[in-house]
Amino acid sequence: MSDGRQRTLSTSGESLYQILALQKGCSHDDIKKSYRKLALRYHPDKNPDDPNAAEKFKELNAAHAVLSDLTKRNIYDSYGSLGLYVAQQFGEDNVNTYFMLSTWWAKGLFAVCGLLTGFYCCCCLCCCCNCCCGKLKPPPTGEGPESDYVSPDDLEEELRNDPDNDVEAPIIQQPTNASEKTQLITDGHRRYGDTYT
Question: Hey, CA dihedral for 92, 93, 94, 97, is it positive or negative?
Answer without folding.
Answer: positive
